[in-house]
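Supplementary Methods, section 5.1.

A reviewer requested that the exact input to the structure prediction be made available. We therefore reproduce it here, unchanged from the version used in the analyses.
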Amino acid sequence: MPRLFQPNKSKPITPVFNVANLGGGEAEITLYGEVMEESPKDYWSGESMDGVYISVQEFNEKLDEIKDASHITVHLNSCGGDLFAGLAIHNVLKALPATITVKVEGIAASAASVIACAGDEVVVMPGSIFMVHSAAAFLFGYYNSADLATMCSQIDACNKSIVNVYAAKTGRDIAELSELVEAETWLIGDEIVDAGFADTLDESSTSTAEVDEDGEGIVTNGLHHDVSAFKNMPVSRIAAAMDATKGDQPTTKQVTTETGVNPAADAHISAAPPQAAEKEGEDMDYESLTLDNLRAERPDLIREVENAAATAERERIAAIDGIAASVPADMVEDAKYANPMDAAQLALAAMQRDAQARAAYVADSKEDEDDSGAEDVPAAPEPSEEEDEKAEAQASVNEAIAYVKKIGA
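The structure derived from this sequence is encoded token-by-token as follows.
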């Protein structure tokens, strides 16, 4: 996942993360920076490290300040980070009773694009950037084929979670969205609206973006992001879009849809969400469409559906058995029968439980360390000058005795 850093640490960008109750039922949340489970801390001092971060821990702690708001505006500018953290923030925003408006003030990439989709209304500007891509994992160490197969299942589960979030926002087909994700698709300005990820293009506002000369970083609305982990950043399209916002080029759409970086992405950029299309032809009489009617009129169709369902269930159970060795037994049993889910969903649930357990272990270890009083134990006293002199004298005597013994022998 990308690491985001400050362009000038002596002058940190503010606000990075902020929650404000504006009164009158209005509130706002500013999310600028890298998405993380918690802000990183120095190993030795335990102090928070410098950087621009959006932490789930801090996000949850501050939400109480705006719990009574009826409308919340989220100002978002992030290249993503931890997918689980992004999903957690997305889910919390969706669960709030308030109406959520997300404004993409720069970029919403990777995990940040998941956060953006929590908006009841998503607003972008002509220069806003949106990027979706497949989940990735960092490996270090030695792994056998079973380990790697399990990790592949976990990544597949992550991708399914991402695509489900996008489908809920856009109303588009899962297979189509999966292609966008696998292709690492970049959208700019009104392309984001056309693809269904945003609802409104605010042409009265501006969003700036400038790519570093080496192509490994980008500054959006004054915030620098490390994008070296991304493969297909459309540098020329971004530059052209920025020129268009200054009036030097035609409209954003004319510039950014001329030639894309990847064909799979370009094939879907201009596709309107299916819910926007009007149905043609006669309306179906749904009142007379019952299972009994279908069974009587189309027994072949019913058999086909039942056989397909039975096959799918067998495949679901077999896939769960395939990863059962790496998942707690109680979760396997629950996934098979009590709360049915597929192998990908089970793998994701297992990863989330493991992450929670690791976080709890770290918190408990820190508490034990604080309670131990180890910091209050004084260091061993250093020997005094007098003790040093006695030790030196004794050493000289020992050497003399050893010499006498040697010549006497």
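The first strand starts at residue 17 and ends at 23. These observations are discussed further in the main text.
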